[in-house]
Amino acid sequence: MSADDGATILETKDGGSKTPDIKKTKFDVIIIGAGPSGYTAGIYSSRAGYDTLILSGILPGGQLVNTTEVENYPGFENAIMGPDLMIDMRKQSQKMGTTIIDDEVVDVDFRRKPFKVLTASEEYEGRAVIIATGATPRKMGLDGEETFAGKGVSYCATCDGPFFRNQEIVVVGGGDSAIEEATFLTKFATTVHLVHRRGELRASKVMQERAFNNEKIKFHWDSAVIDIKGDQKVQQAILKNLKTNEETTLDIGGLFVAIGHNPNTELFKEQIELDDKGYVVLKNQTHTNIEGIFAAGDVHDRTYRQVITAAAFGCMAAIDIDKYLTEDADK
Questions:
Q1: What is the mean pLDDT of residues 227-233?
Q2: 24-78, pLDDT tens digit by residue?
Q3: Is 21 known to be catalytic?
Q4: What is the distance between the alpha carbons of residues 91 and 138, in angstroms, rounded to a whole number?
């Protein structure tokens, strides 16, 4: 089932990318992105016998490279560090025969087959493509946000909430996501401080009522976090009231940013159907509106955003591609 362009088989460096002496540019399957969905798709696609390429981007691993302990991914009794999990997934995909190149995709052409995927240095062709570029959490833009990423600053309550038992926590945001995260965190925290720039929430009425009725949630209206402080980990959040300019210092153990995500779909705007928020629209399971182009993970998932669901979508996309390529060969 391999796409044969006569190129020399790629040499593999231990634990690294496959680096060709003569560049191979034609593949059965091209996967754009190397988070849990991309690596899992590579494992399944290569194991099914397809010549598979992952273009990982400059920083492979997705959001997990900025995550410390992952304790809700099955198979790791004592948890695993996010970067280590991504390294293991990468090695497993390579072991199955996946070619992985750490290069960033700058353009695509899905208007005709074979599909073309371009990086700054090369043009690749694929019989099918999986978009697994993920999504990026919106950030507040504070220096402390970067300093304490994975050290008390988080973008996923479901992932990290249990690490903050019996501590005070700040949640930044005012939409459904922020209220959902704040409510979830009350299972662990002594107090959840919800910091919102406006004087009223943007969340649905049902979500608002749930939050207002929760005694553990304290609201800080018309306010913003202007600084995050700590020694090795988050210890304080500095709030500023945007109307009075009054500043308040909160002693906390963690800070959760819940102001939304941006799907990494800029490249595909003129190529495939996206929804009003920029997420890939799926027509059937993992199929996009273009036959032969599939999507997996946070690039289309607005609901779950978990490692295990991203990996599951990667599996599904690879299985869907197997069916697609088999039927295409029979035509």
A1: 96
A2: 899 999 999 999 999 999 999 999 999 999 999 866 777 777 677 888 899 999 9
A3: no
A4: 30
d(CA 84, CA 67): 10
Choice among 28, 51, 160, 320 that is catalytic = 160
Q: Which two tokens stand for residue 67?
A: 């995550």
Q: 0.85 exceeded by the pTM?
A: no
Alpha carbons 131 and 123: distance in angstroms, whole number = 17
Query: For residues 29 and 2, is the Cβ–Cβ distance under 8 A?
Result: no
Can you tell me the distance from the alpha carbon of 111 to that of 92, in angstroms, rounded to the nearest whole number? 32
In the annotation, is 315 catalytic?
Answer: no
- Catalytic choice (159, 301, 315, 322): 159
Alpha-helix runs per DSSP H in 148-255: 157-160, 176-185, 205-212
DSSP assigned state of 203: S
Instruction: Report the SS3 class of residue 169.
Output: strand
